[in-house]
Amino acid sequence: MGLLEALRVALEALRANPLRSVLTTLGVVIGVAAVITLVSVGQAARSRVVGEFASLGPDLLWVLPGKAEEGQQFATQEGRFTLTFSDAQAIQREARAVAAVAPWLQTSIEVTGGGRREVTTVIGTTPSYLQVRALRLQLGRFLSEADEEQRKRVVVLGPTLARRLFRAPELALGRRVVINGRAFEVVGAVHPQGQVLGVDLDDRAYIPFSTAQLLFSVNYASFLFVKAQDTASVLRAQREVERVLRREHGEEDFTVLTQSQFLGALDAILRVLTVALSSIAAVSLVVGGIGIMNIMLVSVTERTREIGIRKAVGAKRWDILAQFLVEAVVISLVGGVLGMGLGLVASWAIAARLLDQSPTAAAALPVVVLAFSFSVLVGVAFGVYPAWRAARLDPIEALRYE
Amino acid sequence: MSSVVELRDVTKVYRLGSVEVRALRGVRLQIEPGEFVAIMGPSGSGKSTLLNIVGCLDRPTDGAYLLEGQDTRYLSDDALSEVRNRKVGFVFQTFNLLPRLTALQNVELPLLYAGVPRAERRRRAAELLARVGLADRLYHRPRELSGGQQQRVAVARALANHPAIVLADEPTGNLDSRSGEEVLALFQELNQAGVTIALVTHDREVAEHARRIVTLRDGRVVRDEPVGSPRDAREVLRQMPGEPEGP
């Protein structure tokens, strides 16, 4: 019997039990949809985050507190407070391949202004941050050296925060914002930066680094941003920064990462996350497969007599095997196609909403091919045992079966 | 020309748990082309076992069974399937049609496993159904047919691949006497056209439609005799009261 005939017989059998066939298919639909959604959303998120950081420019370096273990890019939590403002000054002074250094101190806190309260991210940094991050000013001015030296209470707002508190950045200029009980004057607003993974980079307030240390009673920096002179001098800048800090600290309790090292580490983390999530989703596909196997075993038992009749009139083991295997594969294939559609729609919706991305960017062809072939594989894997049981039935026993 | 069926001292021993059942204890039997043989015997005499072996659903434990000269003892399961497909036509007491398939599709089944192309299958199946008087029932499913009609579909199916022998296991057992007689008339007709038939029954009257009766008892052939003047099913039908069934 050819495969076409086997297909015809299988479709006939599936039509005979419509509800059962639909429910069994549903198990595969959900599994495939879950895998596709998680993998493609994960990929979209990864490319979005990595792209976001990459757009900062290849000449950027990160100085992180704590020494990364051998073979790892990021340090563990110990040594979180080893970086200081004087480190930034020393680097600025001595590392010649470095164009600019900006320390960074970040806190999530409630601020009030314009009669409203908002929880936002307050960042303490220096004027060079503007140059380091290639940030553009929308209006007013950014933090100045004088602000830093005199620990002035001035604040530059991100456009989202400005809008929330004062309805528009233009209306914010010159107004007062209270942070941690202290009044700050709004001196400027930066250009919109967009979102990363649902985090609004414009929902921020920038204040002088020295003011931030005083305000939050700390003497360290969360990390330092370093900008090299140009792309060619990134590695030289890294060596120089390391040399300066080693001398300043007397030990190597920090980690300097270049843009590409940072991106590599970030990408690796996000990839592991994506794989972990889709493995969980794959479990549901396996559950769907067990559903197929269950229903196929029932079907084989119910049709014992049919198998006996078919064997009596000349069906070989392969004919019976093919008949039931094709039936299982048809279920999983139909489930695969429907699940793929559902998964793509879901991942488009999620990508469009959460990642602010165009739908096509989320549709990853390899994922679709993978989920599709995986679903066929599930059909074969879970269909083989029931089909094999059917194929090796003794025709005499099968004909006697009531 | 060799015999259609030749059994040489065939024995069959089953194991049912720890109990050994000797179903056949050295059966010698030959059936020649064109014969119509009835195999009789009380239940437990080994009739069904014999039929399974002759039909290649089972292999002998000892002795040899030659179907058209071919020894079946060492054939694989798939090879036996092939032999059943080409050389044996089964007619069962319970008809054993596939309920979801139409009469036409049921008759097509042996042709399907013989690898006959679809169009050719259709044509031959329709021809066979016409031959058993069901030309106007091609697209009916078994439950839409009477018992007699279902059994005639089964006969058409048995004939599909021009088998060497048609094996009928109590073919009238589930039919009323008129329908049963009609099926027997069909067998006699086919036999006159040259089809070799072996019919298993416990009913003497049914057996007497054949031209030879083989009697089994305790796994041995105890009698093997020709029937002087077989019952003519057409004649029996004519003497039956009531209207004949069907068109």
SSE topology:
The complex is a heterodimer of chains A (402) and B (247).
Chain A: H1 3-16, H2 18-54, E1 60-65, H3 85-94, E2 98-113, E3 116-125, H4 129-132, E4 137-140, H5 145-149, E5 154-157, H6 159-166, H7 169-172, E6 176-179, E7 182-190, E8 195-196, E9 199-200, E10 204-208, H8 209-216, E11 223-228, H9 234-249, E12 254-258, H10 259-302, H11 304-312, H12 317-354, H13 359-362, H14 365-391, H15 395-400
Parallel strand pairs in A: 3-10, 5-7
Antiparallel strand pairs in A: 1-11, 1-12, 2-3, 2-6, 2-11, 4-7, 5-10, 6-7, 8-9
Helix pairs in contact in A: 1-12, 2-10, 2-12, 2-14, 3-9, 10-12, 10-14, 12-14
Chain B: E1 5-16, E2 19-31, E3 36-40, H1 47-54, E4 62-67, E5 70-71, H2 77-87, E6 88-91, H3 103-113, H4 118-131, H5 147-159, E7 165-169, H6 177-192, E8 197-200, H7 204-207, E9 212-217, E10 220-226, H8 233-239
Parallel strand pairs in B: 3-8, 3-9, 6-7, 7-8
Antiparallel strand pairs in B: 1-2, 1-4, 4-5, 9-10
Helix pairs in contact in B: 3-4, 3-5, 4-5, 5-6, 6-8
Structure in words:
The complex is a heterodimer of chains A (402) and B (247). Chain A is α+β, with helices and mostly antiparallel strands and 402 residues long. Chain A folds into two domains: 3-52 and 273-400, no CATH class; 83-252, no CATH class. Helices cover 58% and strands 18% of the residues of chain A. Chain A has a six-stranded mixed beta barrel, surrounded by four helices. A two-stranded antiparallel sheet of chain A has the order 8-9. In chain A, helix 1 packs across helix 12 (317-354). The longest helix of chain A has 44 residues, at 259-302. With 247 residues, chain B is an alpha/beta fold. In chain B, strands 6-7-8-3-9-10 form a six-stranded mixed β-sheet. In chain B, strands 2-1-4-5 form a four-stranded antiparallel β-sheet, with helices on one face. At the A-B interface, helix 1, helix 11, helix 12 and helix 15 of A face helix 2 and helix 3 of B.
